[in-house]
Specification:
The complex is a heterodimer of chains A (about 325) and B (about 850). With about 325 residues, chain A is of the alpha+beta class. Helices cover about 30% and strands about 20% of the residues of chain A. In chain B, the strands form 8 sheets. Chain B has a 7-stranded mixed sheet, with helices on both faces. The relative contact order of chain B is 0.13. Classes of the chains: A alpha+beta (about 325), B alpha+beta (about 850).
Chain lengths: ~325, ~850
């Protein structure tokens, strides 16, 4: 399969890049590591007239620690760089746990944090070649008007399938977004729409330039559990991140987030009430598992059945909570 | 670790690196897609997006108008039918009149570049009239109209009904009889190299019309390809040259004529230029020819002492839209119930059914794997019923060779008892089995396979293999063999055999293989026949040529020919110490005085004094060449009549000159909360007769077990209304390094009386046992019987919950493992039964203008 034809743009500054985004709006696609985008382009899921390679922009590939504020990860920081960072490993273990499960080591050398956050949603009826999609009459996410997964509705249920955003939710991370009118910050929790098609709340002339991990989130113990059939390389069929802080045996604070099962990653809001101020035990962890499985709304977007994936969210949440609790 | 018997060979039985491995690892070796010739064009195939439909009209005018498009080929350009089996000529190069599965071949664009050809595909307008389609074999068998092939009423490709012995009486004698339905889902080869073919015609100097055709293709069967090309193109076989470059794995997926091979030749003829077609990975999945989804209703009876009294099997195979190897597959499934254990009574009903899906064909362990999973699982269950150890019940039912089984299979060498002993001992079966704790278990199973079929699929009495050897004055030995090395190492195998027989070093040997212009006929690399058959032909060719060298050497050394020994590049009299002859002048690279090799032995002899006691290989060869010029030897192999099996209908499939045997123990852990199965280790013992090259055998055994592991736990085709949901290496989950346990292999050498140096099959027999070994281990670990493979985590969890009486996991999208009876369907809407793609205004193929990509 060959790539569709496009004109390659290589901006040198963020200003130049957002200018290009502004000018070409519907006809442009940002390419960072390209690990997800290029195969999708071969499948004709994207046929942009312009491909903007942002790797030539200075200053977007770094991990910068500012005492009192936290850590800034440039959007182009590779997943391997985050995985290899001893600082991240020590202070934000949940992110370390999640990042090391993304794809395979080779893809992590190319894939970026910004790309992982902006990853397209995935579905068996969507991530297929043009020839294949023609055979099913296309789907609502691309070229068609029917959702094969939930044919009654008009909504796309493609699953958000990145690992790191679940960890970033647990860390209350924020992203820095550039546009022609300047920069703004959005909490990662406010970034996603839970719609399979327009998955992310960014305007067409905006791009993410960095990710902030607040200092207040440092020192939480963490765990990330990922369901996949093939251990060496797979998107999450279900993923659970847990960040937890204890004082003695008592849980002081906890955040639980799930990914891979809904069109967006979600925090499990009530996990706090089930754990904070109590001693961590199997029973409490089981309760959190139940809560998480209620947030999960998997549909037939993957090869495993929705029922199984929801069940795994329950079990993995329990295990991730126990693991995070044991890790302090 | 292996256990090998000591032998007195110089090359045979030694771990030798594959002779083509350096080229592969340095990139110097060329696979089909690495090839290109001047003026070469690229072909791209338009595939059907409907599972079953009449073609009303194909309009390629918009595609032909695109700059860079040379021609568009359609079915009527080459309408002759072909198929790998003489009884199954039901394929055409491109669909004529109708398409039979999503992915069927409709047209081929020939263009200057891949991107132009891809763009042109979207400009071909095909008008279809959809027909009702059949996706489930049991539904398909009930069809009264709209048959997939008109000549196959009820969509049954072939059914066989065999009775050997007296099964009714056998079941009556049994103390325990078990019946059960087992399902093995569809899997595919997933060879690393996608299929590729480059076809080029020469043109006649007088007429300008196309003359000889050369096809270079990723194939396991160059001679069958030559034959089928001659049928479709209506050319004599002598005008067609098929060359097999390096092949990156086949596993059966290249063991018949794959559509692109014929299409490339037809396209080259129409375009009047060389055409190369390389499949995308998705096209490899659609070309398929893998292992069919198989439904097995199995009944086995045993006495209290463990002896099997009778077996009855009803097997339905979901064969897809074309015959392919189907008739052979369904026969192997029945025939190979025999020759592993001593079973006095066998009843077999096999149905090969057509459905509107890609054709299934031959895949590693052809025909036996799914039935073996059912049988070994049921045997394990029966052992439990009569309180017998799973190892003991297998020992109880061993054959006593030499013998002929009730279904006519001749067994001579039989290393199964030793295989069982080895894995039971090495896995510490007896000590560990009961002490593994919760969620962990051991399982055992056995399997076997043919060393080639005694009767060829083309029903010909010609030798199955012929090999020529040439030795000339350079002292080099050139082997011309039709055997297709597809990565399994047949080039190395023939080199070893010739080196051993001729007593020369491996570096003297050059192998010219699988080129129909140069090499004699060998029917191909399939059914594990190459070492046994081509190896025997090589052995005979080498002995043929050796006779003449020995006769000449005997004269020079004034001894009887029987007393001449050739070994390690030396020729010497019996009783003489084998040391190299002293060289008076400086030796050359070839170990001989410059220029001497080109002289006759009489000229050389001037320096000699009297008769010799020992000679170098070159001296002996030169002596033999005094009167003849280059030496040529020929050997061929045809299986003996005694190995050809019974006279019953379909009795030609199953009989083999020799069978390999395997026994395995799997150690697994099952997570009872998630259903995830981790295989901790597999011990695999394989009886391959003599291991000609032990590292190669170990590689094959480990590879077979690993492939079985994939089918056991992860791999399956998932279908939705004839749409393959996972046609990619990302979604078709063959195991990766992280899921691959340690596989410890043990070689058992039973030394077959007819194999070359006693060798038998090594590359397929170990696959089948891996699946039931794992399912039996899962039972040992958590007490659930998995009757449908792969044992995916949701199937395992569902079974565990059913056993524990917990809340059921909704598995309606899949077959409930506790009662699997219907074709599994993925969830979601059924667009095919409602509105098709025609209604979509956004369908890019409907757009009148397509942006023309730049030529690359």
């Amino acid at each position: 399969m060959s790539l569709p034809t496009f004109k390659l743009l290589r901006p040198r500054t963020v200003e130049e890049a957002v200018g290009m985004l502004h000018r070409y709006q519907d006809d442009i696609q940002i390419c960072a590591g390209g690990t997800d985008l290029l195969p999708s382009m071969k499948q004709r899921l994207f046929t942009p007239k312009f491909l903007m390679d942002i790797r030539g922009i200075d200053g977007l590939e770094r991990i910068r620690v500012t005492p009192g504020l936290g850590v800034e990860l440039g959007a182009l920081t590779t997943l391997s760089a985050v995985e290899d960072s001893g600082f991240i490993h020590r202070h934000y273990p949940v992110l370390h746990e999640a990042v090391k499960t993304v794809a395979s080591p080779i893809l992590r050398n190319m894939g970026t944090m910004g790309g992982n956050i902006c990853l397209d949603t995935r579905c068996l009826w969507y991530n297929q070649s043009l020839q294949w999609r023609k055979s099913c009459g296309f789907c609502i996410k691309k070229d068609g008007d029917l959702c094969h997964v939930a044919p009654g509705g008009k909504k796309c249920w493609a699953a958000f399938s990145a690992d790191t955003p679940a960890a970033l939710l647990c860390l209350s991370a924020e992203v820095n977004v550039a546009s022609p009118s300047g920069f703004r910050r959005i909490a990662i929790a406010d970034l996603y729409t839970n719609d399979g098609v327009n998955r992310i709340k960014l305007a067409k002339n905006e791009m993410i330039t960095s990710i902030y991990l607040p200092e207040a989130s440092a020192g939480y113990s963490g765990a990330y559990k990922k369901l996949r059939i093939r251990g060496s390389i797979d998107y999450p069929l279900a993923g659970v991140a847990v960040a937890l802080k204890k004082k003695g045996k008592i849980v002081e604070d906890v955040k639980v987030a799930i990914t891979g099962v809904n069109p967006a990653p979600h925090l499990v809001p009530d996990a706090l009430h089930a754990l904070v101020g109590r001693e961590l035990n199997e029973h409490a962890a089981t309760v959190v598992g139940e809560l998480a499985s209620r947030v999960a709304k998997p549909l037939t977007t993957s090869l495993l059945t929705p029922e199984y994936r929801r069940e795994i969210i329950r079990v993995y949440t329990k295990r991730a909570v126990m693991a995070a609790g044991a890790a302090t | 670790m292996t256990s090998l018997k000591k032998n007195d060979f110089s090359v045979i039985g030694k771990p030798i690196a594959m002779i083509d491995s350096a080229g592969k690892v340095t990139g110097q070796g060329k696979y089909a897609d690495d090839l290109s010739v001047p003026g070469m064009l690229i072909g791209k195939i338009l595939h059907s997006h409907l599972p079953h439909a009449l073609i009303k009209k194909i309009d390629a005018s918009r595609a032909l108008a695109l700059d860079g498009v040379v021609t568009v080929v359609i079915g009527t350009d080459a309408p002759n039918t072909y198929g790998i089996l003489p009884v199954g000529h039901d394929e055409t190069a491109l669909a004529v009149e109708k398409v039979r599965y999503v992915g069927d071949n409709v047209a081929c664009v020939v263009a200057e570049s891949e991107s132009i050809a891809e763009a042109a595909l979207e400009l071909i307008d095909v008008e279809y009239e959809p027909l009702p389609a059949w996706f489930d074999p049991e539904d398909s068998m009930e069809a009264q109209a709209n048959f997939i092939h008109e000549q196959r009423p009820n969509n049954i490709e072939k059914d066989y009904h065999h009775v050997f012995g007296d099964p009714d009486a056998g079941f009556a004698q049994a103390d325990v009889v078990l019946e059960g339905r087992y399902i093995a889902n569809e899997v595919t080869h997933a060879a690393m190299e996608p299929h590729c073919t480059l076809a080029a015609f020469e043109f006649d100097s007088h007429t300008g019309r196309e003359g000889r055709l050369t096809v270079q293709s990723s194939t396991q069967v160059p001679y069958y390809l030559q034959h089928k090309l001659s049928i479709v193109l209506e050319m004599p076989m002598s005008q067609i040259r098929v060359i097999k470059p390096l092949v990156g794995g086949g596993f059966g997926g290249k063991s018949e004529i794959i559509p692109l091979e014929i299409i490339a030749a037809v396209a080259a003829r129409k375009a009047k230029a060389p055409v190369k077609i390389t499949y995308t990975r998705e096209e490899v999945f659609l070309a398929h020819r893998g292992r069919p989804r198989t439904i097995i209703d199995l009944k086995t009876g045993v006495k209290k002492d463990g002896s099997i009294t009778a077996v009855a099997a009803k097997v339905i195979q979901d064969g897809g839209a074309y015959c392919s190897y189907g008739v052979v597959t369904i026969l192997y499934s029945g025939a190979l119930l025999g020759a592993l254990y001593d079973i006095p009574n066998i009843k077999y009903d096999g149905f090969r059914v057509l459905t509107n899906k890609p054709a299934c064909g031959a895949m590693r362990g052809h025909g036996t794997v799914n039935v073996r999973f059912a049988f070994e699982s049921q045997l394990d269950e029966l052992a439990g019923k009569i309180n017998m150890d799973p190892v003991s019940i297998r020992r109880k039912n061993l054959l006593k060779p030499p013998c002929i089984t009730v279904n006519g299979l001749r067994v001579q060498s039989y290393g199964l008892p030793e295989c069982i002993d080895v894995v039971a001992r090495e896995s510490k079966w007896a000590e560990r089995r009961t002490k593994l704790g919760k969620g962990r278990g051991l399982g055992m199973a056995c399997s076997h396979y043919v060393s080639g079929a005694a009767s060829s699929i083309i029903r010909s009495d010609m030798p199955h293999s012929t090999v020529n050897i040439k030795i000339d004055r350079d002292g080099g030995v050139i082997i011309y063999t039709g055997a297709s090395d597809i990565g399994q190492g047949s080039d190395t195998m023939v080199a070893q055999i010739a080196a051993e027989v001729l007593g020369c070093k491996m570096n003297r040997i050059k192998v010219v293989a699988a080129d129909t212009d140069l090499t004699p006929v060998d029917i191909g690399s399939y059914s594990s026949r190459v070492t046994f058959m081509n190896g025997n032909a090589t052995l005979r060719a080498a002995e043929d040529i050796k006779k003449r060298i020995v006769a000449a050497a005997a004269l020079k050394m004034a001894c009887a020919p029987e007393d001449v020994i050739m070994r390690d590049d030396l020729v010497y009299k019996k009783g003489v110490a084998p040391v190299a002859p002293k060289q008076e002048n400086a030796p050359t690279v070839s170990g001989h005085v410059e220029g001497q090799i080109l002289r006759g032995s009489v000229q050389q002899k001037r320096k000699d004094e009297g008769p010799k006691e020992r000679m170098s290989f070159e001296e002996a060869v030169t002596a033999a060449m005094d009167n003849t010029g280059a030496l040529g030897g020929t050997g061929s192999y045809a299986p003996p009549v005694e190995a050809k099996g019974g006279k019953h209908k379909g009795g030609g499939v199953g009989p083999s000159p020799a069978y390999s045997y395997s026994a395995q123990v799997a150690d697994v852990t099952v997570d009872e909360e998630t259903g995830e199965v981790t295989v901790n280790k597999i011990w695999a013992a394989h009886d391959c007769g003599r291991a000609l090259n032990p590292v190669s055998v170990e590689g094959q055994v480990i590879g077979s077990v690993w492939m079985g592991l994939g089918q056991a736990l992860q791999e399956e085709f998932v279908w939705k209304d004839g749409l393959l949901m996972n046609p990619s290496m990302l979604e078709y989950k063959s195991p990766s390094s992280t899921e691959s346990p340690e596989i410890e292999s043990f070689i058992v050498e039973s030394i077959d009386p007819e194999g070359p140096f006693g060798a038998k099959e090594a590359s397929e027999g170990s696959l089948a046992a891996a699946i039931p070994a794992i399912s039996n281990a899962i039972y040992d670990a958590v007490g659930v019987r998995l009757r449908e493979c792969p044992f995916s985590p949701e199937r395992v969890l569902s079974a565990i919950r059913a056993k524990n009486g917990q809340k059921k996991i909704e598995m309606t999208n899949r077959v409930d493992p506790t009662a699997p009876h219907k074709m599994r369907e993925h969830g979601g809407s059924t667009w095919y039964k409602g509105k098709g793609p025609q209604r979509h205004a956004d369908d890019p193929s409907r757009k009148t203008t397509t942006e023309v990509p730049a030529a690359d």
